[in-house]
Amino acid sequence: MKQAWRVVVLLVAVCMLGGGFAQALAAEGGGGGHRATREAKTAILLVAFGTSYATARGPLLAFEEKVRAKFPGVEVRWAWSSHQIRQMEGADDVDSPAEAFARLMEDRFTHVAVQSLQTIPGQEFHMLVEAARRFEGMPKGLKRITVGLPLLGAPEDLEAAAAALLAGLPKARTAKEAVVFMGHGTHHAGNAMYPALQYYLWRQDPLAFLGTVEGSPSLDDIVVDLARHKPAKVWLLPFMAVAGDHANNDMAGDEEDSWKSVLAAKGYAVETVLAGTLENAGLVDLWLAHLDEALEALRQ
After folding, report:
1. CATH of the domain at 57
2. 184, 229, 246, 290: which is the annotated catalytic residue?
C-alpha cells in the first residue's frame, strides 16, 4: 500500500509539472465551469523531521493529543520530511509531505493547515512550503493550504522561546552553572535564528549558551565562551523537537567527540538532560499559536 501511494504521488507530480493533471480531470468532466461546488472539509497536517528513536515518538504523540484537544473535530494527520528516516524500520507507515497531501486530496479534504515542527525556517521548512504551493488549488484538489511557522519563525518568537527554554531548566541547576543548548544547525540562511536566539538568552541569563552541530555558533564557539566564565558545571540540553540521534550520540554520547566528552575533557562537570523542545510547555504553546494562525488564515 505504501509503495502504491508513492506511485500516486509521482504521477501527481508529473501531471502537475506538465499540466496533464488538469487536462485529465477535464476529460472526466471535472474541469471548466462544470465543477460542482464541494463542501469545505478541513484537516491539520503536522510535519516533523522524524526520528529514528522509538522512545522519541512519545513527545510527538503527546503534541498530537494537545492539537486534538485544542481543535476538536478536526482531522489530524502526520508527515515526516526526512526521506532517510522514513526508510528506517518502524517508520515506513509515515507519509512524506507530498504523500500526505495526495492522500488528503484523495480523501476529498479541501482546506489544510500545515504545522511545521521544525525549529527554524531552514531548507526543510522551505521545501515544505514549496510542496504546499504545488498542491494548493489543483482541480478537484486542495483549495487552500496554509503553513504554520516553525518554532523560531518570526522576531517575536525569539524572546518568547528564550524565556520558555530558561523556565524549563532543571530545578537543580544553580545560577552559577552554565547551560548549553544543542541545536541542529544548517548552511541555509535560516541558521541566523540561532545567534539571534543566543542574544535573547544572554539578555535573560549570561550563562545560557546555544550551539549547533552543523551550523553556527559551533561547539568551538561555546568552549571559548565558557572559558571566559569558568563555571564549575555545565548542563547540556537538546534544542531539537525530540531527543533523538543527535541528542543521544552527538550531545550525550560517550565517544570522545561528543559534546559531553569534549566539555568533560576541558575540566567541567557535565550533566545531560535528554528532553526535546516538545517536552517544554512554553515552546509547545508557541507551536500551537502558530497552528492557530494557520487555521485562521484558512478562513480568510
Report:
1. 3.40.50.1400
2. 184
